[in-house]
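Q: Structure for this?
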Amino acid sequence: MSNRYDAVVAAITRVGGVRSACVVDAIDGIVVAESSMVGTDPAPLAALAASLTRKLDGLLSVAGHGPPRVIHLEAELGHLMLKPVSPELLVVAVTDTETNLGLLRLALTDAAERLE
Amino acid sequence: MSDDIQRMTTELARNPRSLIFLTLGEVLRQRGQLTAALAVAEAGLLRYPSLPDAHDLVGRVRSDRGEGDEAFDAWTVALRLNPAHAGALRGLAFLAFREGDLERAERHLRAALSVTPDDPSLRNALQKVIQHGGQRTLPDRPSPLRDREQSLLVDGRGRLFGGRLRGVDGGDVSEVVAAEIAGVMREAGRVTRILALGAWRGLSMECGGSGALAHFAPPTDSTVLLVMGEPGTPVGRLALEAEASAASARRWLERYQ
């Protein structure tokens, strides 16, 4: 089973500029599988990704929408992109500022489909 | 090219980190060489993004080029970096005066004078504004978001400043969503801080079920704007629309806060 997760994470990291890619347990906010550059700790990434997804899910639900499909947080020094696979699982990537966001979105969508 | 400009250009070429770009940019601006002045100012800003004087210089050049929105943004950043920056206050006063908002112009000039009380040009400008006081008007801007449906401007405590949002069933969900946005704003800040990503600039998502798009942008450090897009709206287009609305909201906030 872990090989499947590892393969998914490896595919995401092939997108240029990805610093860290994870499969995350969305309920507990813990890492299921990850591949990160040296110096990047995936544990806080997993916890924060799960927490942010819950917040946004709450916001959408009060407006009558379903849970978020893709989330993209843009910051001064990089990007965080999340793709919920199910209520229990997320795929997550952190990138630098130069990454191709369209390719990253496709990679996360493909990863989610492989894990469904 | 005058000797002074030649000398400063040579010095800058020899030492690109030199602060001489501030003087060179200003001299070029005063001579009306606005394209060259902007190039010098923006190159300097790239090296010194936290230097208020660099943003002030960009503001002056942009203003001379008739680019009021960009000048406003530059001076606003300068003030964020140094709330007592007299040049930025003067610049914002000038823009306000040009828009006919004399009350705001006077407020900025008084703030600038509290920093440099002996500046005769500031005193003259304030005098001019006061003389025009009888014609004081505020442009009609009842809402920061009047041109955009399905958007909300909210502060970090969930207070709604403007806009309106309808839920999927057509009901007004502005207040409840505003309360949720405050939590999202804090969470986005926490994420970027802990992951060392710098300040967050935007957050977009595709909504399940409806397929609608949502984009959050922070017009200021203490406010956030939510713009919703119909299903099928290109993500990039919604982000651009949100940025434009955020710029409008920023000006509105600066005017009324």
